[in-house]
Specification:
The protein has about 525 residues and is an alpha+beta fold. It has four domains: about 35-140, TATA-Binding Protein (2-Layer Sandwich); about 155-225, Nuclear Transport Factor 2, Chain: A; about 240-395, Elastase, domain 1; about 400-530, Neutral Protease Domain 2 (Neutral Protease, domain 2). Helix content is about 30%, strand content about 20%. The strands form five sheets. The chain has a six-stranded antiparallel sheet with strand order 1-2-6-5-4-3. Strands 7, 8, 9, 10 and 11 form a five-stranded antiparallel sheet that branches. Strands 14-16-18-17 form a four-stranded mixed sheet. Strand 8 and strand 9 form a beta hairpin. Helix 10 packs across helix 11, helix 11 packs across helix 12 (about 495-510) and helix 12 (about 495-510) packs antiparallel against helix 13 (about 515-525). The longest helix is centred in the middle third of the chain and has 20 residues, at about 300-315. The protein is globular, with a radius of gyration of 30 Å. It starts with 16 loop residues before the first helix and ends in a 5-residue tail after the last helix.
Length: about 525
């Protein structure tokens, strides 16, 4: 049985700073309304957000300056000097900001500076300035505090005394893992800023890297917490599922990611599962969804796990989430609704554009030799329906026989590529009575050999995509194929059009490196029109 890491419940986990940074009480803005109004009026299109805790700007975004001579670091410093009042700073305050980091991201060079007071760092107070390639400031994010209020006092405890206070607080059986490091900083409290010894205490028992903030004047523990990042089982619900399907993989206990607090139902950031036959599954008091495969709630766990797996796969490819065209996602912050036990022994699974949700029937086998097994228990079936939802997110109402065939072909390909297995639906199709799978991406079907039925013709597209994957590798093929899907410029694409989009993606992002391979597979071998 998995439990929360015991040290996370230790008395040293105070985290009092949470009360300071999330008290919900807005401080009076230190910048007058006229100053901020003038600043924004002089910079058309600029936006400013306030930090309710500090009363200073949290973020300013827009064309904040004209080009400034010198380096990005110098440009950021010049901007801060010229605009100190809008940030709640004096000229002296700006000069006391010390550069602590610089990095480039998204076309901007970012410079981070630490706020200091009386030569000491103000804990957690820094400012980040983003400068473009013309040395124009485009972005400022800040956690600066305009007024560092420090109580006065004459007597100070020694660093040795502070160390002992921390060790005593950790308990008589404390076992150090390495030496204690320290710095002196100003730390925020609800009563003002306190000069403290910031000690970092690594221990084996209680396990952690403990951060202590001890008042240098009276030895009071102002705050303390464990900064070690545990893979905590306590807040990581678990369930038994099949990693692929019951025929190819054994039941495995997995972590169900992104389940929303209080972690008792299968309602997460990316998926909510609806059981059409019963109330929602409930986790036990150890946050486990532990159901046998014949229990109605097992399919909820299986589909939640599968959707999370597929969602992450597509996000790694650049998927934006179900946020624009998916009805369910728009209403639930990108979440996908997934339904299990749809219908009565229903032999299918589907994505419904009207609801923006995916659905899985129980199947009618055994009992019906021509039926299917439970469709919720196979990951690639879930991935196939998920891909339909992805396509509709970018291209709602794709139509035409070839448009629908591409829908199916893309869905087959990505479902199989995710699991690195060209066979689709090998569990849900009973082997003895049927061929043992729904479709196979590793095929040699030519475009002219297929009918206009979407699933049939889609096999030619999926097969071509799979052979491209075999030729150039999964990462390149997934990138090219997903890109070709995104840039479709019509709701009625033909196979020729989609193939041309593949060539376009290759030309723009890969310099035409794979042109010959694409043309050979899609045109010569598959007969897709030139």
């Amino acid at each position: 049985m998995f439990h929360e890491e015991p040290s996370l419940r230790h008395r040293a986990n105070r985290n009092r700073v949470d009360a300071v940074i999330s008290n919900g009480k807005a401080k009076s803005a230190v910048i007058s309304s006229s100053e901020s109004k003038t600043f924004l009026e002089q910079r058309a299109g600029t936006s400013l957000e306030w930090n309710i805790t500090t009363g200073t700007p949290a973020a300013i975004v827009g064309k904040l300056s004209t080009p400034i001579a010198g380096t990005a670091s110098g440009a950021s410093q010049t901007f801060l000097r010229e605009n100190a009042p809008i940030l709640g700073l004096s000229a002296d305050d700006v000069e006391e900001l010390s550069e602590i980091d610089a990095f480039e991201w998204g076309g901007l060079q970012f410079i981070r500076r630490q706020q200091t007071y009386e030569g000491l760092p103000v804990f957690g107070a820094n400012i980040l300035v983003g400068v473009d390639n013309k040395n124009q400031v485009q972005m400022v994010t800040s956690g600066l505090r305009s007024q560092v209020a420090v109580k006065s006092g004459e007597k100070e405890i020694s660093l040795k005394e502070a160390r002992q206070i921390a060790l005593n607080d950790l308990g008589e059986d404390v076992q150090q893992r390495s030496h204690i490091t320290h710095e002196t900083v100003f730390y925020p409290t609800q009563q003002g800023d306190v000069k403290v010894y910031h000690l970092t205490v690594p221990t084996n028992h209680p396990l952690g890297t403990w951060e202590y903030f001890i008042d240098v004047q009276n030895g009071e523990i102002v705050d303390s917490f464990n900064s070690m990042k545990f893979h905590s089982f306590y807040f990581a619900p678990r369930a038994r599922v099949y990693p692929e399907n019951p025929e190819e993989t054994k039941l495995t206990t997995v972590m169900l990611r992104d389940v929303k607090s209080p972690y008792k139902q299968l309602d997460g950031q990316y998926c909510k599962v609806i059981n059409e036959d019963a109330p929602p599954a409930q986790a036990d008091n150890t946050y486990r969804f532990d159901f046998p495969p014949d229990n109605t709630h097992f399919d909820e766990c299986q589909v939640y796990y599968s959707v999370e797996k597929v969602y992450q796969y597509f996000m790694d490819l650049g998927f934006r989430g179900f946020t624009v065209n998916n009805p369910y996602g728009k209403a639930h912050n990108g979440q996908l609704g997934a339904n299990v036990h749809t219908g009565n022994k229903y032999d299918n699974a589907f994505y419904d554009p009207a609801t923006g949700q995916i659905y899985f029937g129980d199947g009618s086998y055994p009992g019906n030799d021509n039926g299917l097994r439970d469709l919720a228990k196979e990951v690639d079936v879930v991935a196939h329906e998920f891909t339909h939802a992805v396509i509709d997110e970018y291209h709602p109402k794709m139509f035409g026989s070839e448009g629908l065939a591409l829908h199916e072909g893309y869905a087959d390909y990505f479902a199989c590529s995710l699991l690195n297995d060209p066979d689709l639906g090998e569990y849900v199709v009973p082997g003895p009575e049927r061929d043992g799978m729904i479709r196979n991406c590793d095929n040699d079907l030519k475009y002219s050999e297929t009918s206009t039925e979407p699933h049939d013709r889609g096999q030619a597209w999926a097969g071509a995509c799979w052979h491209l994957r075999k030729a150039v590798g999964q990462s390149v093929a997934d990138f090219l194929i997903f890109g070709s899907l995104l840039v479709l410029g019509t709701n009625a694409p033909t196979f020729k059009y989609a193939k041309d989009m593949l060539l376009l993606i290759d030309q723009y992002w890969c310099g035409g490196e794979y042109k010959a391979t694409i043309k050979r597979i899609f045109e010569t071998e598959r007969g897709i029109p030139v």
